[in-house]
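User: My instructor asked us to take a sequence, write out its structure as C-alpha cells, and then describe one feature of it. I'm not sure where to start. Here is the sequence I was given:
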Amino acid sequence: MSQRQILQVFEQYQKARTQFVQTVADLASRPQNTETLQNAGVMSLLRPLLLDAVPTIQQTAALALGRLANYNDDLAEAVVKGDILPQLVYSLAEQNTQRFYKKAAAFVLRAVAKHSPELAQAVVDCGALDALVISLEEFDPGVKEAAAWAIGYIARHNAPLSQAVVDAGVVPLLVLCIQEPEIALKRVAASALSDIAKHSPELAQTVVDTGAIAHLAQMILNPDAKLKRQVFSALSQIAKHSVDVAEMVVEAEIFPAALVCLKDPDEYVRKNVATLIREITKHTPELAQIIVNVGGVAAVIDYLGDSRGNVRLPGIMMLGYVATHSENLAMAVIVSKGVSQLAICLEEEQEDHIKAATAWAFGQIGRHTPEHARAVAVANVFPKLLNLYLDTESSEDLQVKAKKALKSILQKCTYLPALEPLLYEAPSNILKHVICQFSKVLPHDSKARRLFVTSGGLKKVQEIKAEPGSAVQEYINAINNCYPEEIVRYYSPGYSETLLERVDNYQPV
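Assistant: Let's start with the prediction itself. The C-alpha cells for your sequence are:
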C-alpha cells in the first residue's frame, strides 16, 4: 500500500470520527433521541474520543456528552459511572488544551452537577474544583464563564458543597469576574456568588469579605435585565442572613436608586428587587425605617398593583415585616394605602401560599392598636379571612394564618360595624373575641348601645349558648349589664312565648 493510500485511510477514519461526533451532538440536542442514544451505548463510544488527537473531535464529543448529561439525572449518572469525569478534569487543567474544549468540558461538569447534590459531589470528588479554578484564571472570557457556571451549579445544592467551592478559593476569582467587561461573564459570576451566599451566614460573610457588595452595587442600574436579575438575587441572598450584612448592603448606597427597578419591564428583576427589600426590612426596626424613609413602602405598594401571582409574594411579605416592628411602621403601611392593596391581593390571588402571606401581613398591621385594627376592618377584610379559615379547601397553613390574623386584629378592634356581622358567622373560637370587644366598647358608648339593639346584635348575643362561668358568659353578662333588665329579657329566646302565656292567663277585670 502506497503512502498516499495510507494517508487516505487515515483521512477517511478522521472524517468518520468527525461525522460521528457531530451527528451524535446534533441528535443529543433533541430530547426524544436521548434514550435511543443511551441504549446504543453512545457513552462508551464517545469516551475515547475525548482523547482524540483532533481538537474539534475532542470538543464535539464533550459537547455531545454535556447535552446528554444535561437531559436527566440517569444520563448524568451514566457519565459518572463511565469514568468520563476524570478525563474532562485532566483536560481542563492542561495549559495547552484548546479553549473550545475547555468550555465543552466545563459544560459537561455543569450538566452532571445540576441534577442533585450526589452528582455534584461526584464532580467535586473527581477534582473538578481545582480544574475549574484554573479555568477561572484563563484569559478567555468564554472559558471563565463556563467555569463559573459549573461552580454555581455545584454550590447551589447545599452548604457543604458551597463550602467546598469556597475552600477551593473560588470567591475572589468570581468577584474579579464581575468586574470584567463581558456582560455574560458578569451574569454567571453574580449568579454563582448568589448560589454560594444563600446557604448560611458564614458563607455569605465569605462573599462579603471579598468586597463583593460594592462591585454588585455598581451594577444595579445596568441596562442588561439578566445581569440585574443576578445582581439583586446575590444582594438579597447576602442580606437575608443577619443584621450586619444587611446593613452593609444598605451602606453600599443602593437606595433609593434600586426602587426604580421595581418598575423594570423584566418580571424577575422586579421580583428580585422586592425580595432584597424584604430581606433587609425583616431584620430590625431601624433597617425597616431606612427603607420607609427612602419611599420603599409606597414603591412596593405600587409594585403590588402592577404585579400578579408569585411575583407579588416578596412585596406582600415586605409590608408584613415592616408592620411587625412597631406601631409607627405599621401606620406607615396604612398611610401609604397598603391595606387596600393587600385586600386586592387577597381577592385576586388563587394560590393558597400567597393568600396565607397576605393574611399574615394583615395580622402584623392590625395587631398594634384599635386605630390599626380599624384600618384593616374598614377594608372589609374580616369576612374574607373568616371564609379562608372555614373553607375546607384551604391549605392547613392558610387556615392557621387566617385564624391567627383574625384573632390578633379582633383583640384590638373597637370598630363595631365590622365586628357585628361576625356575631352571625364566626365559630365559637372566633366569636369569643368578637363578644369580648363588644363587652369593652358598649359600656362607654351610648350611641353604640342603641345601634346594637336596633341592628339585632343584642338579640343575637342572647341566643349564644355559653358555659356558666366561662369567659364568653362573662362577656355576655358585661354586655347585658349595659341595658335595662326588661330590654335584655325582651330579646332573650322564648320571651315572646312567655308574653303569650301571660296573655292566655290574663283575666280582664
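For the description part of your assignment, you could build on this observation: Residues 55 and 98 are 7 Å apart (CA to CA). Try explaining in your own words what that tells you about the chain.
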